């Protein structure tokens, strides 16, 4: 494995050298601009039946979408939407050279001359990054500042700054983000030295490898894992080395299972009801990848009688503590018949039902649930807690506007304007808000109402008669006017199921539709808000809403990332 990692690093180094025969550091007098030979623009288009990816599969490469032409707004009360800028082309070599001359011989001449030690290089990288982030009217200068700050961060072994620089480049310019990220990982693996930086790098590589796995890009995942192994050994952290070795083993197992299941997956493309193919594909998605949203319907169509009945029971919806415990028990029993990764994935799924029910359990039933939850935690450490928000709903109590009903385990909205419902749940500092929904009628928006830092805002999909997605509101402006807005001729097809994930972090928010990053906004949330037409009764809870578009929400859940959310009962909260 060491030889493989070394070979990969050498190969990437040779590849980088082949791109240019000139030095790439700002400390070289003969530095020349970055040649964009490796840049392959990959615009992200609005979802359509032929372009959307698999529901529930997060995107591994955050690249903002290019905007199609903006359709005129059909609502006379709303001014025509402002055009949203697309990502910029990489500046030409001549343009970069002119900017570089100004930077090196005038603006930052003394800083560059004095940055002789790693610490001073880190300081200079941070300064260039900060200036680049505030440079919005000079795209060439911004590009050169970011590129050079990234190189400084690499040379001084500073992963956080290097990642920030690359992310800024990916948000603004048409770069080949996946290729450049892997190159960045490989370069940092040669320069990081402190245990803390090694751990940061390894954790970043493992997360990136997981994202590749979700999209069945196994070669990329293995390359990331090879680099992670080399960095983990450099850290001399035995726990980190063992963790990375386990991750590498899991990647190999998943790749082998995918190869075995691929014929069945291909069969389903032409014969979607084939029982044997549904069983094989369903086992792979549920028991190997842990993608139960995708795999459970397949198991329900499969040839295994027991799994078919159990999957159908879950898809039909479960209500009440007894039903939740019974379903958890049933899946746990299935897990006992499996081994290795399959057993772990099934137990994890069963434990989610125990987690839903445990607050209502007592005595021996609670003791059993607690023990099994601890068993699952021990598999690979405590993972993120997933909270099923539909299970908390009382439609009579929680509906803020409109008529909402629970039907077959799904939450369904009516055809009214600004219909919305809130959940008796206060999210933690950082979380993923995930919904799986189908708009059944109507031409307008589906909304996720989020909360952070004492502010409430919404992620709106299909607003302005299905022509806009974006965050609502930023600076008092909706998606048709603020910079988060993304326009398209049509965003949602009635009758088609979509998965939307809003990732709320302390430094900003991102929104994905069917695994593709649609929009991102860096903020401390002080500029975000929600007008009274969409506001909930409390500003610290979550909700969903629709505008003249009846919608069925099959899944509404929160994955807690940092901190632990609380129900209103737990915090003693009441609605006004």
List the helices and strands and how they pair.
Elements: H1 2-19, H2 93-107, H3 109-114, H4 118-133, H5 139-155, H6 159-172, H7 177-189, H8 195-214, H9 218-235, H10 238-270, H11 275-288, H12 292-300, H13 305-316, H14 320-336, H15 340-357, H16 363-380, E1 386-388, H17 395-398, E2 399-401, E3 405-407, E4 410-412, E5 419-422, E6 425-426, E7 430-439, E8 446-452, E9 455-462, H18 463-466, E10 468-472, E11 486-487, E12 497-505, E13 508-513, E14 516-522, E15 543-546, E16 551-562, E17 566-567, H19 568-571
Helix pairs in contact: 1-9, 2-5, 4-5, 4-6, 5-6, 6-7, 7-9, 8-9, 8-10, 9-10, 10-11, 11-12, 11-15, 12-13, 13-14, 14-15, 15-16
Tell me roughly what share of residues is in helical segments.
40-55%
Mean pLDDT: 81
Described by its quaternary structure, the protein is single chain
- Strand coverage percent: 15-25%
* Residue windows where pLDDT falls under 50 for at least 5 positions: 1-84, 570-576
Going by helix content, strand content and strand pairing, the class is alpha+beta
Distance between the termini: 61 Å
Descriptive keywords:
alpha+beta; Jelly Rolls; seven-stranded antiparallel β-sheet; 47% helix; 3 domains; 17 strands; 576 residues
Descriptive notes:
- The protein has 576 residues and is an alpha+beta fold.
- It folds into 3 domains: 2-22 and 67-250, no CATH class; 318-383, no CATH class; 390-571, Exo-inulinase, domain 1 (Jelly Rolls, Sandwich).
- It is built from 19 helices and 17 strands.
- Strand 8 (446-452) and strand 9 (455-462) form a beta hairpin.
- It is globular and about 70 Å long.
């Amino acid at each position: 494995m060491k030889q493989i990692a070394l070979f990969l690093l050498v190969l990437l180094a040779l590849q980088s050298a082949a791109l240019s025969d000139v030095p790439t550091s700002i400390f070289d007098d003969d530095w020349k601009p970055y040649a964009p030979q490796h840049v392959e623009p990959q615009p992200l288009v609005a979802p359509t039946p032929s372009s959307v990816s698999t529901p529930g599969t997060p995107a591994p490469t955050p690249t903002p979408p290019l905007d199609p032409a903006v359709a005129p707004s059909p609502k006379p009360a709303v001014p025509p939407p402002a055009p949203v800028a697309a990502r910029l082309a990489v500046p030409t070599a001549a343009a970069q050279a002119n900017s570089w001359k100004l930077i090196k011989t005038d603006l930052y001449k003394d800083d560059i001359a004095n940055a002789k030690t790693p610490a001073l290089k880190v300081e200079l990288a941070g300064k260039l990054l900060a200036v680049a982030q505030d440079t919005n009217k000079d795209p060439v200068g911004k590009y050169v500042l970011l590129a050079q700050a990234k190189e400084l961060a690499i040379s001084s072994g500073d992963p956080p700054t290097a990642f920030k620089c690359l992310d800024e480049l990916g948000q603004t310019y048409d770069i080949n983000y996946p290729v450049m990220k892997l190159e960045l990982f490989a370069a940092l693996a040669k320069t990081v030295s402190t245990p803390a930086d090694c751990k940061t790098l390894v954790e970043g590589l493992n997360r990136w490898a997981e994202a590749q796995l979700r999209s069945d890009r196994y070669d990329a995942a293995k390359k990331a894992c090879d680099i992670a192994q080399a960095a983990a050994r450099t850290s001399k952290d035995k726990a980190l080395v063992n963790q990375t070795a386990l991750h590498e083993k899991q990647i190999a197992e998943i790749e082998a299972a995918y190869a075995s299941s691929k014929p069945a997956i291909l069969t389903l493309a032409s014969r979607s009801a084939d029982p044997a193919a549904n069983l094989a594909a369903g086992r792979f998605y549920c028991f190997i990848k842990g993608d139960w949203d995708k795999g459970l319907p397949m198991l329900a169509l499969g040839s295994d009688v027991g799994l078919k009945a159990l999957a159908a029971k879950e898809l039909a919806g479960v209500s009440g503590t007894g039903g939740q415990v019974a379903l958890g028990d049933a899946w746990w029993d299935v897990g006992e018949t499996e081994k290795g990764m399959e057993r772990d994935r099934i137990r994890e799924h069963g434990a989610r039902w125990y987690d839903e029910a445990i607050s209502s359990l007592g005595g021996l039933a609670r003791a059993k649930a607690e023990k099994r939850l601890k068993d699952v935690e021990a598999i690979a450490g405590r993972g993120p807690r997933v909270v099923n928000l539909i299970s908390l709903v009382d439609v009579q109590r929680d509906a803020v506007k409109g008529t909402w009903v629970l039907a077959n385990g799904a939450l369904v909205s009516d055809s009214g304007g600004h219909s919305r419902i809130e959940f008796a749940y206060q999210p933690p500092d950082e979380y993923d808000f995930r919904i799986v929904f189908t708009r059944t009628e109507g031409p307008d928006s589906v909304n996720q109402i989020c909360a952070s830092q004492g502010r409430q805002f919404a992620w709106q999909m299909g607003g302005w008669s299905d022509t806009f997605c974006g965050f609502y509101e930023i600076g008092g402006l909706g998606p048709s006017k603020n910079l988060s807005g993304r326009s398209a001729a049509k965003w949602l097809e009635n009758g088609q199921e979509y998965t939307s994930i809003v990732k709320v972090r302390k430094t900003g928010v991102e929104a994905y539709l069917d695994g593709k990053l649609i929009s991102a906004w860096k903020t401390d949330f002080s500029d975000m808000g929600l007008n009274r037409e969409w506001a909930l009764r409390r500003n610290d809870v979550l909700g969903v809403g629709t505008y003249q578009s009846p919608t069925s929400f099959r899944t509404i859940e929160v994955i807690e990332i940092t901190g632990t959310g609380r129900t209103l009962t737990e915090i003693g909260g009441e609605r006004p």
